[in-house]
Amino acid sequence: MDNNKMTKCKACGADIAKGVKKCPHCGKDQRNFFMKHKIITFIIAIILIGGIGSALSDGKDKKDTSVKTSTKEVSQKKQDEPKKDELKDFYNVGETANYKGIQMTVTKVDKSNGSEYDKPKEGKEFVIATVKIKNGSKDKISYNPFYFKIQNSKGQIEDGTLSTVDQDTALKSGELAPGGEVEGTVIFEEPIGDKGMLLQYQDNIFSDKIKIQFKIS
C-alpha cells in the first residue's frame, strides 16, 4: 500500500489508512479534539472572533476619544490663553496689564486734602495713584508721569497736577532697561468722593490713544 496514504494509529501504532475515523485494529478514534467536537469548536471560534472584534473596536474608540479629548484640550487652552498684547477694557487696582512688554500695575490709590501750604481747590481733593512699571520686553522703554491722565465721572479727561503732597514718591521720567522696574505716584485734583474715575495710560505724550485703563474708584 502507498506509504503516503498510510499513517500510524495513535493508540496501538498499527498502520492504518489516512483519514479513517477509527483504527480497524483497536477501534481508537483517530480524529482530533476539534473534529470530534465540532459544535464546541464552532462556539469557541465565534467567541474568539467576537473578542477580537470587540478589542479592535475598543482600541479604536479609545484612540478616537483620546484624539478628541486632546484636540479639545488644545483648543480650550488656546481660547484661555490671552493673545499677545490683548488688553482688557479696564483693570482693577492690584491687577497687572501687559502692553508690548510693559507690565503695569496700580498698587494703591490714596486721597488727600493737601497740606497746610498745598491744598486742592474748594470741593476737590488730591487723588494719588501708585503705579508700578516693569519692562518685560527686550528693548529699553521710557516712562513719564505725563503719560498718565484721569477721567472723572463727568467724562472730563485731565492731566496730572503739580503738588508737594507726593514730592517724595512722585514718578519721575526716565528709561528702563529690559527687566528693569520703577514705582512712583501720579497725582490729580478731582471732585471730592468722585466715583467711576479711570486712570489712563498712553505711551506717548503726543498721542491721544489710550493704551491701558485702570478703575481707581
The fraction of residues in strands falls at 25-35%
Q: What would CATH call the architecture of the largest domain? A: Sandwich
The major pleated sheet works out as: 5 strands, mixed
General form: rod-shaped
What is the third-level CATH name, the topology of the largest domain?
A: Immunoglobulin-like
SSE string: EEHHEEEEEEEEEEE
**What is the count of distinct domains?**
2
Task: State mean pLDDT (0 to 100 scale).
Answer: 83
Radius of gyration: 43 Å
Q: Ranges with pLDDT <50 over ≥5 residues?
A: none
N-to-C span: 113 Å
| CATH class term of the largest domain | Mainly Beta
Keywords: Membrane, Signal, Transmembrane, Transmembrane helix
Region (Disordered): 57-83
Transmembrane segments: 39-56
Organism: Clostridium moutaii
Account of the 3D structure:
Residues 58-83 have a biased composition (Basic and acidic residues). InterPro entries: DUF4352 (IPR029051), Immunoprotect_excell_Ig-like (IPR029050), Znf_ribbon (IPR059113). This is DUF4352 domain-containing protein. Helices cover 22% and strands 31% of the residues. The longest helix is centred in the N-terminal third of the chain and has 43 residues, at 38-80. The mean pLDDT is 83. The strands form 4 sheets. A 5-stranded mixed sheet has the order 3-13-12-8-9, with no helix packed on it. A 4-stranded antiparallel sheet has the order 4-5-6-11, with no helix packed on it. A two-stranded antiparallel ribbon has the order 1-2. By secondary structure, it is α+β, with helices and mostly antiparallel strands. It folds into 2 domains: 33-80; 91-215, Immunoglobulin-like. It has helices at 33-36, 38-80; strands spanning 6-8, 15-17, 91-92, 96-99, 102-112, 124-135, 141-143, 148-151, 157-159, 174-176, 181-191, 198-201, 212-215.
